[in-house]
Write a structure and sequence with these properties.
The structure holds two protein chains of two kinds. Chain A is of the alpha+beta class. Chain A has one domain (2-91): Arc Repressor Mutant, subunit A. Chain A has four helices and five strands; from the N terminus they run αβααββββα. Chain A has a two-stranded antiparallel sheet. In chain A, a hairpin with a 4-residue loop joins β3 (59-60) and β4 (65-66). In chain A, α2 (17-24) crosses α3 (28-41). By secondary structure, chain B is of the alpha/beta class. Among the domains of chain B are: 2-160, Rossmann fold (3-Layer(aba) Sandwich), CATH 3.40.50.300; 175-264, Helix Hairpins (Orthogonal Bundle). In chain B, the strands form two sheets. Chain B has a seven-stranded mixed β-sheet, with helices on both faces. Chain B has a two-stranded antiparallel ribbon with strand order 7-9. In chain B, α16 packs across α29 (605-613), α21 packs antiparallel against α23 and α32 packs across α33. The chains are: A alpha+beta, B alpha/beta. At the A-B interface, α1, β1, α2, α3 and β4 of A face α3, α12, α18, α19 and α20 of B.
Amino acid sequence: MLTSIMKILARKESLSMTQLAHEVGCSVRELESALEQMEHMGYIRNEQFTQSCSSSCGHERESSRCEGCGFASSETYTFWVLTERGETMVGTEPN
Amino acid sequence: MKIALIGNPNVGKSTVFNVLTGSNQQVGNWAGKTVERKSGLIQRANLEIELIDLPGTYSLTAYSQEEIITREYILREKPDVVMAMVDASNIERNLYLVLQVLELAPRVVIGLNMMDLAQAAGITIRTVELARALNVPVVEIVAAKGKGIEEFLTEAIRVGQLEQNLSAVEVSYPEALEHKIQAMEALLVNTTWATKYPLRWLALKRLERDPEIGQEWKINTSQSQKSKNSDSCCDSGDTVSYELQGQGELPGEALLRSYEAEGWSKDHFEMAFADAKYKYISQILPKFRTHENPAKPTWTDQIDRWVLSPIWGYPMMLAVLAVVFWGSFVASAPIGDAVSQGMAWASDVVVSLLQWGHVPDFVQSLVRDGIFAGVGAVLAFVPQIAIFFAFFSFMQDSGYLARAAFLGDRFMQLMGLHGKSFFSLVSGFGCNVPGIMATRTLEDPKDRLITMLINPLIPCVPRLGVMSAVVAAFFPGTWGSVVMLSLLFISMVLVMFSALFLRRVVKQTERSAFVMELPLYHVPTLRNVLIPTWHKTYSFLKRAWTFILVASIVVWVLSSYPQGVPMNATWAGKMGGLLAFVGMPLGFDWRIMVAIVFGFTAKETTLSTLGILYGVAADASQSIAQAMTGAMTPLRAYTFLVVYMLYIPCLASVITTYKESGSLGWTSFGIAYNLILSFVAGWIVFHGGLALGFQ
């Protein structure tokens, strides 16, 4: 399961959690558990993408709203990516 | 009797510990660590029990202090029994730790907590089957309500007093891996360590090159050497492994090197062992767990099947955008007209008051031809922008925006853009400044640079606002929506072209993929739509009254002096005349060129500048739309839109690019690239249109 996830991630194709769970053949819950474990082991990383503003832009953290130009979206994207260690590991297949 | 309490974080361990120990607790720190150590004494009949609450951990590798403490305690202190707490509502995650505990401890009792939560989630755990699957006792508890805790302890005491160890299950590994484990076991079996630690566990850890185990060997070797040097007669004790004395190498090192030659690094072993455990868990889960309709997809899954489909996803996204733009143009048209008329009326009233007060003519002109013409031109399109923001907030709150971004990434894969780059581009639709700053999340500096340079090709909200104002003037009704979509399409095509081009210039590394967590769909609340809409509209208005007001005054001065000359002979006219050679091939007159130049300071000022230069207020009955349509053809307007969408980003974006890239060269390259690209694209559109018979 973990190895399959690593191999799928190495395919350079972005997937949603549901799509990945379907491809691995497990539930989203099992997948979440596996991803958390792999993150703990240092092979993948959980990242959150939020709009970062400069200090002069006056980013207001409490409301997740950009005060500078006011047009920044508060949307946060969460995704999992391979770490360098993960990429190295998946890139070298044992004999 | 010594009992250890173990479990994942937040599994309810502390609740059980507190119930069992009451006030008989000792709290301190683990030796040399910053992790809290809690122990307590329990008296049951004639038995005194020391209960240790081990730190919450997800596994027993050596990645964190908590893991090392937990593992070391079980290995060194050898508790008589381990009480392993498991969250029934998230059992797959918890069983991973349990399987590792079973490799270390011979007597384990499982406390299945949060059964109530599991049941509420439609999960049924058959305790008897679970106990059979793992071959250890399992007790159901609801720690928060104090249920089953005493039974859990009673079972632990019973197991702790057994004369024989339990024969718990052993994870089976693939055959090739099993051979390697056995080979390592054979090398370790005669070491003194094998008498202290479970042999199989020791072999697994050696194959993983566990740093803590290696460190321990080295310390022991050093102690042994020191003991020999001092001619000590004393026994080196059980912590010294006799076979290491005089040797510098750990046992099994040669075997590990031979595996490495076959490509088996420590990471490969670690992953293979973890993988086998997860596989084992997924194999045994159906024996004891039933999930109510586990295979039935949620309605989010059902919608996503269409929305994220490589075939249907893109037409659906186009349809959504078409609805957004149609709604913005058609629904806002009457309100926009009313605001225009209101501004004209206000301008008349204010100017009449100024005339009544005998205020000098130049002040009257400034108010009418500068402030009202400039700021008023922008304000007339506030309803349109507000409705666009409302649609945007609706898409965001419903969960669709994340899907659109996800679809966009898959589209960009063709261009080799880094997965995360796309999210920076999505941010650019709001404002290019945070979009450029969002490239900080990209590790590769080349990825960052390419994304920074591409970002200004994405039309930000102020640009979309000006564009939609011009589109509404020249292409009313449904056509406006089609034109806006075509402009976005041009933007996307050029982003893709630029990505390909810049990959060659910057020599970008290979893209990487990601797994994205998508939010559940839900019906947006009015509050979640209206509040962001208000914030964004307010920001737009604030800029109109501050920045655009100043820009309007400057443009009025430039277009009014020297006095008594035609407008094309004013300072603004002369400035436009200097740029005429650039504008002519695109069909632009000097006023458009001046508006484009002023747009560099902030994109909205283009609209206010057009309002002043096209003399909106000179004929108060005329709106900016009427003034512009009288002076431009739809083809020229479309060419203007293409150039405006792509040309040099605003000053703030340029400064941000410079700050983020740290390179004046690349910043200049970005400016030059955008200018050339916009000119070429505009030229193709204009001359293509002429060739097709448009005027």
